[in-house]
Amino acid sequence: MKKKEARLSKNAMKWLRTFHLYLACVWGGGASSLFAIHCLYRPDSGPELYARNLALLYVDNYILVPSAIGCMVTGLLYCHLTRWGYLRYHWIIVKFAANLLFLLTGFFWFIPWIARMVETSLAMNRYMEIDPGYTAAMRIHMIMAASQAVLVFLLIIISVFKPWGRTRINF
Questions:
Q1: Do residues 156 and 74 touch, judged by C-beta distance below 8 A?
Q2: Rounded to an integer, what distance in angstroms lies between the CA atom of residue 31 and that of residue 106?
Q3: Span 27-69, pLDDT tens digits
Q4: What number of CA atoms fall less than 13 Å from residue 13's CA on the CB side?
Q5: What is the DSSP letter of 5?
Q6: Quick check: 149 and 74 in contact, CB under 8 A?
Q7: Is the Cβ–Cβ distance between 25 and 149 less than 8 Å?
Q8: What is the torsional sign of CA 99, 100, 103, 105?
Q9: Which of 120, 142, 116, 140 shows the shortest CA–CA distance to 131?
Q10: CA–CA dist 87, 94 (Å, integer)
Q11: How far apart are CA 11 and CA 19, in angstroms?
């Protein structure tokens, strides 16, 4: 006896797709915002640096993380409630792996790093010169922010073109 698969109505499918695409837009916009903050705001003192780092932390914690988790959840729902399945297509596996990599990297490396940068910049004096090592670390962070925006764009391209075809797994 074949197990009946859960399916969505056409209207419910459109809503799920809408939420998934909205969350992808928010995620990409948040990553682009991090990059823009880095490029457009050049602090000259400890308090200004603190303000910039706090803005980066807020964008990361309240825009990037929720939207990436939302993309993961809606993507998994999409896989479960449609014929796409979890492992039937290579492009779905790549999107899932990229999203998971982003979340794990963010939780265990990116967010703690920014939180330390906020604490460090708070301790800087009003007229203290910004340490060159600190500046180099922020450049790396800027590259990571740009990479996130590119990653989201690539995931959207993968969603639209659905390359690589089916796998041999029917789950």
A1: no
A2: 12
A3: 999 999 999 998 898 888 778 888 999 999 999 999 999 999 9
A4: 11
A5: P
A6: no
A7: no
A8: negative
A9: 120
A10: 10
A11: 13
pTM, two decimal places: 0.85
In a 10 Å sphere around its CB, with 0-12 CB exposed, 13-18 middle and 19+ buried, how is residue 133 labelled?
A: exposed
- 130: confidence class by pLDDT, cuts 50, 70, 90: low
DSSP class of residue 166 equals: B
DSSP 83: T
Tokens of 3: 């197990």
Tell me the domain boundaries of the chain: 58-161
Residue with tokens 């998994």: 76
What distance in Å separates the CA atoms of residue 53 and residue 59, rounded to the nearest whole number? 10
For tokens 């939180």, name the residue. Answer: 115
Mean of all residue pLDDT scores within the chain = 87
Has residue 122 got a pLDDT over 60? yes
